[in-house]
Amino acid sequence: MTTDLLMALDLLVSVLTAAAWVGAGVTAAARRPRTAAALFAVALVASLARVWSVLALAGAGWWFVQEKITFVLPLLVAASAAATALAGPRVLRAARRADAASRDAVRAPVVVVPLLGAGYAAAAGIVQTFLIGYPADPGTALLLLAVAAGAVLGTWRAMSTHVPGLRTATAATAVAAVLGAAFVFLPSTPATAEGSAPEAAAAMGEMGSASHDHSASGGSASAMGGTTRPVTDLRGPAAPPPGGAVRRFELTARTTTVTLSSGRKVPAWTFNGQVPGPPLTAEQGDLVEVRLRNADITSGVTLHWHGYDVPSGEDGVPGLTQEAVPPGGEFVYRFVAAQVGTYWYHTHEVSDLGVRMGLYGTLVVAPKGTAAAGVDLTLPVHTLGGVLVTGDRDQPLVRQAAPGTPVRLRLINTDNTPHRFTLAGTPYTLAAVDGTDLNAPGTLGRVGLRLAAGGRYDLSFTMPSGPAVLRIDDRTDSVRLVPASGSPGEPAAGAAPTTGGETADAGAASTAGGETADWPELDLTRYGAPAPTPYTSRSRFDRDFTLVLDRGLALTNGRPAYAHTVNGHAFPNIPTEVVREGDLVRLTVVNRGRDTHPWHLHGHRVLVLSRNGHSVTGSPLWLDTFDVRPGEVWEVAFRATNPGLWMNHCHNLSHADLGMMLHLAYEGVTTPFHGAHSG
């Protein structure tokens, strides 16, 4: 059974346990001994099942059961034992007799209060897991214990005018509540990131403050004998490397209404009046220079180069590497196009709203000296105004290609949630993931490709003699390639240019291959062939960080919220991860919630070491965004070779907006900006 299913089963059992205990107490109070006895038996079985489900879940890791073993189960076992000892014999005796005296006896406080008390205890466990979240701490445990005890005392007092020791019990409950509140709400020294190297503790304590003011890191760096430098010094060069050209682009952010291929008009935030923004292309070794202007985006705008390891000062994170560009302002980005492959850019200011409204575009870097051949389509997929679009089309893109023509489809998921792609009508290879070529990718057919939010896949194949259809989420045809006359590798007569465009929809081939929903999902960790990597799970790591993703009550920008949390905190209260240049860093990312979290570290590619304890057996996977599904545990690693201040966050940008983001900082790098990134 998968961890995800065990989590769901544990939730079901916990709810059943609480309902059964409360039901037994209520029916006993209603003088229905047989029903109370039946529910009492169900409650006992459910309580034992809860113990089993927690122990089974513990096999997936301590992160999934921490609060259950330290608080939830002890409270449930103690309350269930009390209910069994005090109420059990009386309920069973009354059920056997079922006379008037027995019905009166079963509603006595000595029966009803323990049964309801066990229900309150079971409910407190549910609140801890699903409202407060990971991890359980003494403060929340005392508060929940006080609430459960208060409910027991209130029930007892409602049923009886005389409660032995009521004042003492009430006073003890009040003391527990006050102590719990003090632990929870009084400010404390920020903790270090879980699992960090001990020598980084001082730096992380200073850099994990509520404001995340990284100018404080100068003191920590000096204490360690290092030097400081501002992130504003970490910029791209003014001239390209020898042999490279300068590729200049201008992007102006403005609000407008865009017209989709169907004629539907959608209000949008755009770069240069279009969604997606203009495609940016370069050759490896070129200097990319982009001048960003803001016409009227009132919240401000920046450019983040998703998956591209630019210098930190070019990363486009407002409040950390620059200020957001206000209306009427501009900012010039420069970086060398060192990485070949498929990437994209988007705003990082109020990015959940900005990207959703259309502030994104594509970046493709070709190997130096290579000429475009065949059909090469860059296909950003986005939900704009409630409509799924590929590029600027809400209808299938239809292209003609002569059989034998090489075809490359560059898929980019610019949404907040994963998309599933299928390609019917031709065998193909998944040539690259997140801009990096895979080693010896095998031939694929009749499989589904799940693409994480922010991720990219490059599909490569030779145009067959029949139609080939790319479908999204098993229901929407995105691209239809139809055969045309002509020599292999040459555009068909009347076809659009090979890097984009479309032909008329009329007369296009219908879907090739029929239904795709039953096609199995490709497991990337087993695809392709192994190859040597610079480090493995057996390497010695200089830094080791664990990020436990969950939901719970937390402070987000000074306000209490039901947040998406990391190690029990929400931004900006998540301690910063501090590394030194040259460190080998391992990240363990654990998802104990019910949402999928596409994890994205700025400025670095990570090598996947394992997923759910299983090492990668296929091609090495170098990713910049990876989907951590409910119950999953990913281990990834990177070499800290790009000094700066970096975001490390969930790329479901609505989750990031609700707290699921933190900073990774190199020792000695400071920022003159406010640090309170706004999304």
Structure description:
By secondary structure, the protein is of the alpha+beta class. It contains twelve helices and 33 strands. The strands form seven sheets. Strands 21, 22, 24, 26, 27, 28 and 30 form a seven-stranded mixed beta sheet that branches. Helix 2 runs antiparallel to helix 4 and helix 7 (138-159) runs antiparallel to helix 8 (166-185). Residues 198-225 and 488-511 have low confidence and may be disordered.
Which properties best describe this structure?
7-stranded mixed β-sheet; 6-stranded mixed β-sheet; 33 strands; elongated
Strand content: 25-35%
Count the E strands: 33
Mean pLDDT: 90
Main sheet characteristics: 7 strands, mixed
Q: What's the helical proportion of residues?
A: 25-40%
Structural category is alpha+beta
The Rg value, from CA coordinates, equals 29 Å
What is the 3D shape?
elongated
The residue ranges in which pLDDT falls below 50 over 5 or more consecutive positions are: 198-225, 488-511
Number of helices: 12
Distance between the termini: 37 Å
